[in-house]
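Inputs:
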Amino acid sequence: MKAEDYTERHETIDGWPVHIVTYRIGGQYHCTIDNVDPGARFARAEGAKRDDVERTALEKAKRYLAQTRRFPTV
Amino acid sequence: MSVLVSTDWVKEHLTDPKVRIVEVDVDTTSYDQGHVPGAIGWNWTTQLCDTLVRDVIPKKKLEELLGKSGIDNDTTIILYGDNNNWFAAWAFWQLKLYGHQDVRMMDGGRKKWLAEGKELGTEAPNPPQKTYKANDPDNSIRAFLPEVQDAVRSRSAALVDVRSPAEFTGEILAPPGLPETCQRGGHIPGARSMPWAKLANDDGTFKTPAEIKALYDGVGVTGDKPIIAYCRIGERSSHSWFALKYLLGYKNVKNYDGSWTEWGNLVGAPVEKP
């Protein structure tokens, strides 16, 4: 068994750069989304179809990122 | 053999009886998806810490974990994990804290193994029980709050903040998408910013020692005085600690695992912004 259909791409969600990795192991697709800086995985989804798992993971990512507050730095 | 081993080296040593491969991920479900065949999985949230008091794994618990993992004092431990070996480095630091001699990291970690399409296993091995005898903690590689406070007052050590620039300036209190775990944003006065992720290439491997040295030289951290690295909870900084101590060879490098979740919650602690 190997990771197959392995893809990586960068996107921006609500101003936050994210890194999206999707691959299949056996019959299961896995999609993980991490914040580019620092690179912590904060959303993921698993399922039988690539499009479905990416959509689910992106929905979770948007929900979590909406809770991130920005503060003034001066 | 270097403290970093390649994915190909690991592939050639999957059944080497002197070697035990261990996966430690930020995302603790990753191991169950598939892992390096024969690798043991350690959960950082339950197995690499004291689950009652905020602290590193207690000595007795470490001895039990290693024994149960088929590891004795002579075993070569190869650590790897997701996120450029983020938590593999956390495990590495704790193993060195308790004096394990031969511990190394698979350069590139889980990401590189998957991207290269190398074989994965799904079975969790059940190795024969071994007896492990840990040393008392070597606190020459660990900084506690009083030492950091003294370093701020006396400027006796170079403080390195390895969080993201937005955490360093106080624009955000935690990495985007993760819960806030501190009361104030900013950084420890005098700290230099060198985000941990800058030390890695896109494929998850470490940059060369020359490249890493140039990055640190650029922010004035040259190894001419003790270095204390910190982040939010001490794991990202264990990755930078590893690079400073084992790739650059700086002698006096400590990980402040209390990090910003300690400093940024202290009443009256000085904070620098941006």
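The radius of gyration of chain A is 14 Å. Flag for discussion at group meeting.
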